[in-house]
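Project standup — Tuesday

K.O.: blocked on the structure for the chain from last sprint. Re-posting the sequence here as requested.
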Amino acid sequence: MNTALCRSTLAICIALAVLPAQPILSWSAPAAPLTAHQARMPRLAREYITFATARADSAEKHLPEFTRIGETIAKRHLAGGAMTWSWNSQGLQQELFGRSGNFVNFGPGREWKKDRTAEEKANDIILTGWERAPGGGELAERKTAKAAGADLASFGPRDLPALKELVDLSDAWFDTGTGADDRMVTLPDGSKAGRGNFVANALNGWTLMAETVAALTRAGKMPTMWKSYSYPDGREWGDKYLYKQQFHDEFTVPPMVAGVLGKAFLTEMRANLDRFGAKQGAQVTQAVNEIVAENKAGRKVAVASMGHAPWTYVSFYEDAKWGFNADLHDNSEDQIKRFNQNTAEGGLVLRLGYSGMSRKEQDIFAAKKQRVLLISTLNPNEDAKIPATIPLFIDMAWAYGDTTVSVPGYPIKLFPPSGIMQAVAYESVNVGVLAALAAK
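H.V.: unblocked you, prediction finished:
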C-alpha cells in the first residue's frame, strides 16, 4: 500500500513526550456496522469478522495513547534500552518476535551489541501480552525487571481477575476490551465461542510498534526491520542487522507525523478483513461442512498449524471438541515426525498455513493420503503454488510478502497482517463447526 505520509519539521518532531506514571489504556469495542461484503459470510463468521473490525476501529480511536507510549519506548530505546518480552507461552510475544516488518533486534537475547552498560539496561522495555490466566512465576519475574528499571508495557483483558496483580504492576496496559470472557460469538444454542483476546492484542501490539517506529523517525533514527523470508534475499537482509545494528545508516527516512503509521496499518487491516469477508464465505461454509461430517463419523480433525502464534491458541479452547493441534513446519524434521505419528492415514486435515503451499508440504500430506482443507494465501513462486488437487482453499487475502505499510525512503514495507488473519480465518471456521455440532 502506498500511504500518503505527512511530514513535519524535524525540530518539532524530534521532541519526545514524557508519560505520566502508570497509564492504563482501557476501552470497550464499539459496535461496528456490517459492510456489504461481510454480509456474504455465514452469520457466525461474520460476527467474528465484525468483532475484529471493531477492535481495529477502537485502536484507531485511541491512537494518541499508542503514540504517547510509543514515544516513551523510543526514548528508552535511544538511551540503549532493549525491547524484549517475558516468556509465558501465550500469543502476542510470538506474533511480534522475529516477524517481517518488525524490529530485527527485538526479543530475549537479541540486543544489537553484547556489552550494554547498567544504565542502558535500566532503560529496557518489556512488552508482554496475555490472552488467558498467567502461568507460574510471571509476576515475580516482572517485579524483578521493574526493580531493575525496566518499563512494563502490557496487553490483555484488564478485567480478567487472574491478571489483576499484573495490571497493577504494569506501567501501561493495553486492554482487549473483552472483559473477563473473550468468546465473541453467541451460538444458536446460547453457548459462546470465537476467542478474541489474541486478535485484540495483536492489533494493539502492531499499532504500538508502528507508533514506536514513527517516534524514532522523529528523533532522526530508522530502526533495522525484518524483511520477509518469502523474498530470496530475506535471510541475507536480516543477517546483516541481527545482533549488529540498532539503527540504519544507509537509508534516510523523514520524520513521521504521530498517528500516521498506526492509522495506515489499521486501515490496511480493515481492508484485509473486508476482502476476506467478500470472497471467502462459500469456502468457509464448505470447510465447516467437511469438518462436521468428519466429526459425525467419529474422527477429530488434525489442525496442521504453522506460523509464529497458532500453537498458542489452536485447540486450547472450545475448538478442542472437533480438532487437535499438530504443528507442522516443513523445515522441522521433529514436527514432521510427530505429525506422521499422530495423524491418521486418509484423515481430514485443516492446514492453517501461511503463503502458498510448498512441495514438501504437499508430499507430507500425499504420503498419508490425507484430504486437506487449506487456509493460506497465494504465492507466485513456482515451488509454493497451491496445487489444483487441493479440494478447498480459503484465501486469507493478504498480499505476498506479508507487510502492509510503506515508509518514504525505506525499501521494504512494515507490519504484517498474517498472524491476525490466521486467527480470523480459523475462528470463522471454528464458530460454524461448534454451532453445527451443538445442534446435532
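K.O.: great, moving the ticket to review. The longest helix spans residues 197-218. The chain is about 40% helix and 10% strand.
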